[in-house]
Amino acid sequence: MKKKISKPILIGGVLLIVSAVLIGFVLLMIFGGDKEEVSTDPLNLYNKVLVGMPKEEAEKVLKVESSAKGKGFNYIDENTGYGVTVSYKIISIEDMEEGEAAEAAETTEVVVFKQLFVPDNSYLDGLVNANVTADQVNSLKEGMTYQEVKTIFGGTDGTEINSAYNKKDAATPYSVMAWFNPDHSVAYITFLGYQGTVMVFEYRPGK
Questions:
Q1: CATH of segment(s) 126-207
Q2: Burial of 180 (0-12, 13-18, 19+ CB in 10 A)
Q3: Phi-psi category of 36—alpha, beta or left, where left has phi over 0 and alpha has psi -120 to 50?
Q4: Predicted confidence (pLDDT) per residue in 96-125, tens digit
């Protein structure tokens, strides 16, 4: 004959289970809720920084300690080995915001250059995104649009590897895009503006 479980005991058991679940959820939020997913993207840190971004903001979004490199700083992602090299410069707000009212004396330290940090050539394998030939690169013309270049390169997007502040037009930085081949040869194209118009192009054979 089955024994009946009294209602008070049953209700108490349910409440105990619910309480345990709630406590577990609270502990997870306190000790594990703020953990970010580990990124395996080689461009993880590079893409977080923008030319013209105030230094304070750049260091806040990067969230890693920097090491000095010449006039710049290296920020390395310990999970991937890749990172970003950043140079800062004090620039007047008036230069950055052309056409807007600003006091000439008001200045801020901002990102004027960023470059993808690659530890050594062995890391180029993680950046392979194309099969571009020297003939394709040499067929380019100054002034071509990014889309025209992309079409010549078989529809493959390039990877921006550095960007620099443009004194003549702060809103249109210089941008170097790269197409990495499996044999470590690379097509480097400098654009006026991100995915803008071609300025300079070069094909470097693999070593």
A1: 3.30.1450.10
A2: buried
A3: beta
A4: 555 444 444 478 999 999 999 999 988 899
